[in-house]
């Protein structure tokens, strides 16, 4: 089974069989994270882009656990050279890689990606992950774009979309994104971390149910969804 736990904001822990994959671990400085970086396991750590609320604890967790950090090439170089992360796998937009837990593709995202120290964080991305249980699309931090329809054309079982607005798509654009991706189920993230990105996820879910074929799922930080 593939089990996802929301760690608040854009952070996720995926348990795929016995493998633990983290996405964008932002724990120690997040007001909503249910765990601290020192308490969490990881075999792989995916990083979508260079912003502090996404790279956050990636290096510390990688260095403690020996996990392999996967991100665009610029970010993996930064993790290796500036934070001594030993195991990295650099990729870039449109590329995919076969890993023991599934197939991972880096998708386009419309956002920015400068690293916290001002280093070039390359281009922001999202992730399309296919495990033996299905396909998950993590849009990560992005605006709405019509090529989401192409991403969805492979058949997405679960889409994870930002709804916070201000820095990413807001709720209305996220409903349009659901129409384009056409997933079986959709779960919102990147909201309610701080007042500027406060949103009513339940009101959003009602719109998703009324206007799309997808089933919306809401979890609180620490909550789980099984694929
Ligand atoms: Ni960002
Ligand atoms: Mn962000």
How are the SSEs placed, and which strands pair?
Elements (H helix, E strand, L loop, with lengths): L1 E5 L5 E5 L2 E5 L20 E3 L5 H4 L2 H8 L2 E5 H11 L4 E4 L4 E4 L2 E7 L16 E7 L2 E5 L9 H5 L5 E5 L8 H11 L3 E5 L11 H11 L3 E2 L7 E3 L1
The protein binds nickel (II) ion and manganese (II) ion.
* Low-pLDDT sequence parts: none
First and last CA, distance: 7 Å
Count of DSSP H/I helices: 6
Mean pLDDT: 98
Helix content: 10-25%
The order of strands across the largest sheet is 6-5-4-3-2-1-14
Bound small molecules, deduplicated: nickel (II) ion, manganese (II) ion
H and E string: EEEEHHEHEEEEEHEHEHEE
What percentage of the residues does DSSP assign to strands (E)?
25-35%
Largest sheet, described in full?
7 strands, mixed
Structure description:
The protein has 227 residues and is an alpha/beta fold. It contains six helices and 14 strands. It has helices at 52-55, 58-65, 73-83, 148-152, 171-181, 201-211, and strands at residues 2-6, 12-16, 19-23, 44-46, 68-72, 88-91, 96-99, 102-108, 125-131, 134-138, 158-162, 185-189, 215-216, 224-226. The strands form two sheets. Strands 6-5-4-3-2-1-14 form a seven-stranded mixed sheet, with helices on one face. The chain has a seven-stranded mixed sheet with strand order 7-8-9-10-11-12-13. Helix 5 links the parallel strand 11 (158-162) and strand 12 (185-189). Helix 5 runs parallel beside helix 6. The chain is globular, with a radius of gyration of 16 Å. The protein starts with a strand and ends with a strand.
């Amino acid at each position: 089974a593939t089990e996802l736990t929301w760690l608040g904001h854009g952070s996720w822990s995926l348990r795929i069989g016995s493998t633990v994959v983290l996405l964008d671990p932002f724990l120690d400085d997040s007001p909503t994270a249910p765990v601290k970086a020192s308490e969490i396991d990881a075999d792989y750590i995916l990083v979508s882009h260079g912003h502090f609320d996404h790279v956050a604890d990636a290096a510390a967790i990688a260095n403690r656990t020996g996990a392999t950090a996967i991100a665009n090439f610029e970010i993996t170089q930064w993790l290796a050279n500036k934070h001594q992360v030993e195991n990295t796998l650099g990729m870039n937009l449109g590329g995919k890689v076969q890993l023991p837990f599934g197939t991972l593709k880096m998708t386009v995202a419309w956002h920015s990606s400068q690293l916290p120290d001002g280093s070039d964080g390359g281009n922001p991305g999202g992730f399309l992950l296919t495990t033996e249980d299905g396909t998950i699309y993590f849009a990560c931090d992005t605006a709405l774009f019509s090529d989401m329809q192409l991403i969805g054309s492979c058949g997405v079982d679960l889409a994870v979309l930002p709804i916070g607005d201000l820095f990413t798509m807001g709720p209305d654009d996220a409903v349009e994104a659901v129409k384009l991706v056409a997933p079986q189920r959709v779960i919102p993230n990147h909201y309610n971390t701080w007042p500027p990105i406060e949103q009513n996820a339940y009101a959003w879910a009602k719109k998703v149910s009324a206007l799309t074929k997808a089933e919306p799922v809401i979890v609180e930080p620490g909550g789980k969804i099984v694929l």
